[in-house]
Write a structure and sequence with these properties.
Elements: H1 2-28, H2 34-55, H3 85-88, H4 94-106, E1 123-129, H5 136-141, E2 156-163, H6 169-178
Antiparallel strand pairs: 1-2
């Protein structure tokens, strides 16, 4: 079987080289067409598939397929102490509204993750008023560091921002009508 796979990979590679040569010639002549471009990418895929077949381990067949997309969740906790209450609460609407105003002014909830390689999904932000901010000892005392993300029963929920992402405009409009 390896001989057939090896020959298939060689044939696909030769075809790729021929199409690549035509593509380079057309680019050099400033006469690039979409047809040659699409044939080039199809040949690249065919060659890749042939190489996968040639060098595939028998164990790989048992592996579950990888997902097309990687999805991840970012959970953060940062505690803040209001050092200038008059300035922070100037709108007179409480801690939750003050945080919302700051988030709205910045444009993004987590600006560091606003990059072209990521598509933001639905999100949720909560603001809790608590007795004291985290300190270094809290990290040492926690059974699991992630426990610090849990809401303490002594905290008071001050505000919630939900940012659902809908699959279509119609879904978004239907959800807006419900609310």
């Amino acid at each position: 079987m390896e001989t057939n796979s090896r020959q298939a990979a060689i044939d696909a590679g030769e075809e790729l080289l021929a199409i690549l040569r035509r593509h380079i010639d057309e680019v050099a002549a400033s006469d690039e067409s979409e047809d040659v471009d699409s044939r080039l990418w199809e040949a690249v895929a065919t060659y890749g598939d042939a190489l996968d077949e040639l060098y595939e381990d028998d164990d790989d067949e048992d592996d579950s397929p990888e997902p097309d997309e990687i999805t991840f969740t970012v959970r953060t906790r940062y505690d803040y102490t209001v050092v200038d209450e008059k300035a922070f609460l100037s709108a007179g609407k409480g801690v939750g509204q003050a945080v919302y105003d700051l988030l709205e002014r910045s444009g993004k909830t987590v600006p560091a993750l606003d990059v072209s390689s990521l598509e933001a999904g639905s999100g949720l932000v909560t603001v809790h008023v608590n007795g004291a901010p985290l300190d270094a000892a809290d990290f040492d005392d926690a059974d699991e560091t992630t426990d610090l993300l849990l809401v303490d029963p002594k905290e008071t929920l001050a505000w919630v921002l939900t940012e659902p992402v809908y699959g279509s405009r119609a879904e978004a409009e239907a959800a807006a009508k419900k609310n």
